[in-house]
């Protein structure tokens, strides 16, 4: 979705400045160096001439000097690009896209990094998919960042976020006509001690941390900066934010709408000027000044329908409200006048010192503010499609104060201030005909509403060659029907204009590409939308290795699976997952080994899956043969196929035992349930005991177990008694999951002729199911003689 305000007109003053900075200062051929990775003659050890250009921007940025221009041809280039020299006031260093070229920078770290350098221009690049800030400037002065598109910087995870364009400790610089969208932190970030920066005619949208509401379109912490004629919308936090340290800043002529917090937010800052902005349908207070802020000038703004609609993506809006809100100590020294507010549904029109004023006279009487304020519908052209220009007859026309400090002489579209001859001039200052808000209505009929373009990519990433479908069927018409769609896939391939809203394309080479659709209506009006597609290089996956020790034996068989001899491919190995072939899975885990006990005879396939940090996998398998070992199975009802004979639940009356369908190997399993209203321990006990009289040898108990809720610890225990005296025991524990798992414990008889008690139990079970058990086994390796000795239940 591209709003009318996003179609920024490159007006003469900014264009002249940028053109001057991107033109070499002399006609000497040595003032221009070249980068072209697609030129077969390119070499990073060469001279960087047109005949033998550099292959990488990284190399070009190392050698470019004051007065030189580094021109970059189309292609995808790795970063970070570190600018290692400074220019001078008359001879800047210019790194720019070649005429007509669309170079892309991606990779680890920042896309461009400028540290303690001055008089540097970065112009005309697409920076995408960087792990650090798209463009990062620290220290230095007189930096110009213009006409770049920065997207998908960082990751939406704690500790991995990155801003689109960030300046820190930098002075006297220009950030103009850039697009910063879909980054994991602020679109534009002026950090502490960054001062005298002009941020003008940029667009910031869809920037979000993802895990917390914190990313702004433009975030300012440094003092004395100018934020002018920008469009910010659908950012996770505020459109524009000034926080502690951001004193004496100017925000003028900006359009800010549908953001997850405020349109413009000011917290603990003083001396700010908020002049002639259009603030519409933001989640909370449209223009917000709060905390220890003060000494503000708020004038000529339009704030409409703020804090009465939910923000995009369902962000909660239950915070401070009002079209304009001046809270806490912020009224101290603050002056508000010539602002226009309106609501189309119930809400807070204006808040001053925490008090709500839904009529203009009540505000004026109580506060002395807004003696030239307006409470009226500003009459936008098409607020539903975010066209916030003014219709003829709007009360905002010819009613602003042109004399207030910070009022702009041109609007957000680059239009001059003009006098509407059909409207009486009720404004103030040297021009009594300036319009309120960011748009100046021009003579003649209002501009037509263009179509709103929407674009989705399926898939948006994958291994090259990447077959992709671009779909613009979600686009909506403006004043006229849509007639055609044109797709630019960012690699030199275009499709259309055509009547179909979709087009297919194959990206043969790895890289990140900006796919753009231009939607045109029958009157020739156009809307544009862009999305990024990433074709990943093919990777060599890890090569798995697996050894089993032992690979055969009698049950119970303890097997160690070892994948430590696995080797990585292009990326380091990150995890191992072991499938033991009997329903038991261990991992994914960092460790390269896992152990497992096979409690019953059979042939099993063990598989290890090795995964690297790029998500590539490799698997290999080997077999295990488990024999019965000639032992004798003492359990007569191991699978509850004949009811619950031979088993009982303890404590009697509090825990019950029943059969349920869905067993591990047969039709049924045993289920213990807590039938009380409090937490109890649940025990499954053999009754009468399966081993009543023992001889020397080994007994091995095992069971398959699961629970409806994972996390409980279960214990399997064998206890040997001579009479009522406990002469020995062995136990094993397991954390229950919702899938079947095997638990097993061996025990060597110490007093032949004794009794062995078999029990399986959990503690602190809430009301409901305790656990399920199936395929229980008590295997002896020597002949046991049946007897009738009673077993004391413990």
Structural class: mainly beta
State the helical fraction: under 10%
Q: How much of the sequence is in beta strands?
A: 35-45%
Work out the number of β strands.
Answer: 65
Low-pLDDT runs: 1-29, 782-794
- Count up the helices: 3
Distance between the termini: 71 Å
Mean pLDDT: 89
Rg, rounded, reads: 36 Å
Biggest sheet, strands in spatial order? 1-2-5-8-11-14-17-20-23-26-29-32
Shape category: elongated
Instruction: Describe the largest sheet.
Output: 12 strands, parallel
In short:
The protein has 794 residues and is mainly beta.
Description:
Helix content is 3%, strand content 41%. It is built from three helices and 65 strands. It is mainly beta and 794 residues long. The strands form ten sheets. Strands 1-2-5-8-11-14-17-20-23-26-29-32 form a twelve-stranded parallel beta sheet, sandwiched between helices. A twelve-stranded parallel beta sheet has the order 3-6-9-12-15-18-21-24-27-30-33-36, with no helix packed on it. It has a twelve-stranded mixed beta sheet with strand order 4-7-10-13-16-19-22-25-28-31-34-35. The chain is elongated and about 110 Å long. The model is unreliable at 1-29 and 782-794 (pLDDT under 50).
């Amino acid at each position: 979705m591209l709003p009318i305000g996003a179609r920024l007109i490159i007006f003469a003053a900014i264009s002249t400045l940028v053109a001057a900075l991107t033109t070499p200062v002399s006609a000497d051929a040595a003032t221009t160096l070249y980068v072209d990775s697609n030129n077969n003659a390119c070499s990073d050890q060469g001279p960087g001439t047109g005949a033998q250009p550099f292959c990488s921007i990284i190399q070009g940025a190392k050698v470019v000097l004051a007065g030189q221009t580094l021109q970059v041809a189309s292609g995808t280039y790795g970063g970070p690009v570190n600018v290692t020299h400074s220019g001078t006031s008359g001879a800047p260093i210019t790194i720019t896209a070649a005429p007509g070229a669309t170079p892309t920078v991606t990779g680890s770290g920042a896309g461009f990094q400028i540290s303690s350098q001055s008089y540097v221009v970065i112009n005309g690049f697409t920076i995408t998919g960087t792990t650090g800030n798209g463009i990062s400037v620290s220290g230095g002065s007189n930096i110009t960042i213009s006409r770049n598109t920065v997207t998908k910087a960082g990751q939406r995870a704690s500790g991995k976020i990155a801003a689109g364009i960030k300046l820190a400790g930098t002075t006297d610089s220009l950030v103009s006509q850039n697009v910063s969208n879909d980054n994991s932190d602020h679109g534009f970030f002026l950090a502490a001690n960054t001062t005298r920066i002009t941020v003008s005619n940029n667009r910031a949208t869809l920037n979000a941390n993802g895990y917390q509401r914190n990313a702004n379109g433009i975030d300012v912490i440094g003092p004395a900066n100018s934020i002018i004629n920008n469009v910010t919308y659908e950012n996770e936090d505020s459109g524009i934010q000034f926080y502690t340290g951001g004193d004496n800043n100017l925000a003028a002529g900006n359009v800010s709408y549908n953001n997850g917090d405020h349109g413009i937010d000011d917290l603990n800052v003083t001396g700010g000027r908020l002049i002639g902005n259009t603030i519409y349908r933001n989640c909370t207070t449209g223009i917000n000044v709060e905390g220890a802020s003060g000494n503000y000038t708020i004038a000529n703004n339009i704030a409409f329908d703020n804090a009465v609609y939910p923000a995009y993506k369902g962000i909660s809006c239950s915070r401070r409200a009002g079209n304009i809100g001046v809270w806490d100590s912020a009224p101290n020294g603050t002056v508000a006048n010539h602002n226009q507010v309106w609501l189309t549904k119930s809400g807070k029109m204006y808040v001053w010192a925490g008090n709500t004023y839904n009529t203009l006279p009540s505000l004026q009487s109580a506060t002395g503010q807004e003696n030239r304020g307006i409470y009226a519908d500003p009459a936008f052209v098409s607020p539903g499609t975010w066209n916030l220009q003014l219709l003829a007859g709007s009360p905002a026309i010819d009613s602003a104060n042109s004399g207030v400090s910070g009022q702009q002489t041109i609007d957000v579209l680059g239009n001059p201030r003009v006098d509407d001859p059909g409207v009486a001039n009720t404004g103030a200052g040297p021009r009594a005909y300036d319009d309120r808000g960011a748009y100046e209505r021009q003579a003649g009929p209002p501009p037509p509403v263009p179509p709103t373009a929407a674009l989705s990519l399926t898939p948006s990433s994958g291994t090259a060659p990447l077959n992709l479908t671009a779909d613009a069927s979600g686009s909506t018409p403006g004043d006229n029907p849509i007639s055609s769609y044109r797709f630019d896939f960012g690699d030199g391939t275009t499709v259309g204009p055509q009547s179909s809203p979709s087009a297919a394309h194959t990206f043969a080479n790895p890289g990140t590409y900006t796919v753009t659709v231009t939607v045109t209506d029958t009157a020739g009006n156009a809307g544009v939308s862009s999305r990024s597609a990433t074709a990943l290089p093919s990777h060599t996956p890890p090569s798995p290795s697996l050894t089993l020790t032992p690979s055969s034996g009698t049950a119970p068989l303890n097997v160690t699976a070892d994948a430590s001899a696995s080797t990585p491919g292009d990326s380091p190995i990150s995890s191992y997952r072991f499938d033991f072939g009997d329903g038991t899975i261990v991992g994914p885990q960092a460790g390269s080994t896992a152990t497992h006990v096979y409690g019953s005879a059979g042939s099993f396939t063990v598989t290890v899956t090795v995964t690297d940090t790029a998500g590539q996998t490799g698997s290999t398998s080997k077999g295990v043969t488990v024999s019965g070992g000639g032992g004798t199975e003492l359990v007569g009802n191991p699978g509850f196929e004949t009811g619950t004979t031979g088993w009982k639940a303890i404590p009697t009356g509090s825990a019950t035992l029943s059969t349920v369908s869905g067993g591990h190997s047969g039709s049924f399993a045993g289920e213990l349930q807590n039938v009380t209203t409090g937490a109890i321990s649940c025990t499954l006990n053999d009754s009468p005991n399966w081993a009543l009289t023992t001889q020397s040898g080994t007994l091995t108990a095992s069971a398959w177990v699961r629970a409806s809720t994972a996390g409980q610890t279960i214990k399997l225990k064998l206890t040997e008694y001579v009479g009522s005296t406990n002469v020995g025991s062995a136990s094993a524990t397991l954390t229950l999951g919702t899938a079947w798992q095997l638990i097993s414990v061996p025990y060597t008889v110490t007093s032949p002729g004794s009794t062995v008690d078999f029990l399986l139990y959990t503690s602190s079970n809430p009301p409901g199911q305790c656990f399920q058990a199936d395929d229980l086994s008590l295997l002896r390796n020597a002949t046991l003689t049946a007897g009738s000795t009673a077993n004391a239940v413990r």
